[in-house]
Amino acid sequence: MDTSSTLSSKHKLILYPLLLCAGALMVLTFAPYNVHWLLVFVLLFGLYQSIQTLSPKQGFWAGWCFGFGYFGLSVNWVYNSIHMFGSATAPLAAAVTLLFVLIMTLFPAITVWGFLRLKQRVGWQWRALLFASLWVLAELARGKIMGGFPWALLGYSQTTELFGALAPWIGVYGIGFVIVFLPNVLGDMVKHNWTRPTQRIVSFIIVGVVLVGSVLGLQALDKLVLTQAKPTELKIRLVQANIPQELKFSQERLRSSLQQYTTLSVQDLPPTDIIIWPETAIPTYFSNVEKAIAPFAQELHSKGTEVLAGGFYHDGTLSYNSLRQLAGEKALYQKRHLVPFGEYMPFRFILGWLEAFIEIPMSDLGKGEGPNLPMTLKGEPIGLSICYEDVFGEEMRELIPNSTVLVNVSNDAWFGEKIAPYQHQEKAQMRARELVRPLIRVTNTGVSSVIDHKGRIEASIKHNTQGFLDTIVVPRTGISFYAKTGNWPIFILAMLVLLIAMIMRKSPRT
Known about the structure:
It contains 16 helices and 14 strands. It has helices at 9-25, 39-50, 56-74, 78-83, 90-118, 127-142, 167-192, 197-223, 245-248, 254-266, 286-302, 348-351, 393-396, 420-435, 481-485, 488-503; strands at residues 227-229, 234-240, 274-276, 306-314, 319-325, 332-334, 375-377, 380-386, 405-410, 439-443, 448-451, 457-461, 467-473, 476-478.
């Protein structure tokens, strides 16, 4: 046993609260704050350095404290969904939110525990690589378990920053790997080559070369053309009616809601190819409002304008959260990745009792099946996703290279007003950058936005604002490296590092 792995009770009282605060500061690395792109590097460097002399058991609790601060502030908007719009009592909503956060804290806790169990097996030169590998494996697992919750991944802190240039190559998980690995390997290099003046000079030179080379290399990658703009344009109108969530599913307000959408759609309308309404803009089955909206949709269709609207579709057996062309061929997209507790009840045989306390309108929905093919409108294949689906880059890449434009419709009113709508928009920006496609994002209450193929927001409708936005989008063809390979390269690398560390014999203490 490594006798250096001890931590007194006095030191615990200092270290654990500091790690809790460091984890809480992680929320500042994401939207809407985005304090500075370097902050996440500093925080992960601090976590790595602070755990080096801990035992695995102590490391578990150190990682738990970091995770509790991290997720406690980054995903506490879950409370709004359960209490304000799920009609759960405040104590129950708080308890469910706390349980959810506690589950999230297990991922960094197990990461630190696993690192401290294995670090003595490898030399100091490989420890930063091991820690980065374990961290990214935990993030990948978080994106899969129980349908996945890949929210607040480290890589999102770099969406529009310098290291975001890696997105078309290694995706958000690969960027997270770099965030953990780069500062810590440089720190280890300086720490272990610091005994002699010559070694200090060599360390400074190596660190300087790595940093300068990284910056120049990232700038070169960002300029490298992976896709090509088509010589065509799509004129698109985004419609955001800003109907409050508590009124949205009221049948008494249905006619008024449709009137708001149709009025905003035709107000001062220039020549337009596609008008897009958000998720559940029609808060009932399409068949229930077919006669009411047909004259409006047919008139626009006769003028060359298609209307794409979110609503519900029933096939006689199941109901689907869907996106449909309101006239013409009436092409239909059915949501494929459902939200646990919001659109279906996981582990119903255990958790079914919650349905008596949490009420979500139009829950227990069916899941879209079959190949994920784009919808062709005005001659362009458009890749569609609904709400939570754009959080999953591995699934979104199925739309490439066939799709030339991406469209996501969402109802972020479920999540409150403070951070979740902006965090969700940041994820859409990352998808645009990973897949190198323009992405149109239309939401009920905001933020609706036009995102270019480098993840930059070109225009938007502010949160809690009613309005429309006219834009011109240039479709793109081609395929990025990430769209070809997905998360497999970074997963294989991390697994190889883990397996090598597990089979190596203990190295001499360094």
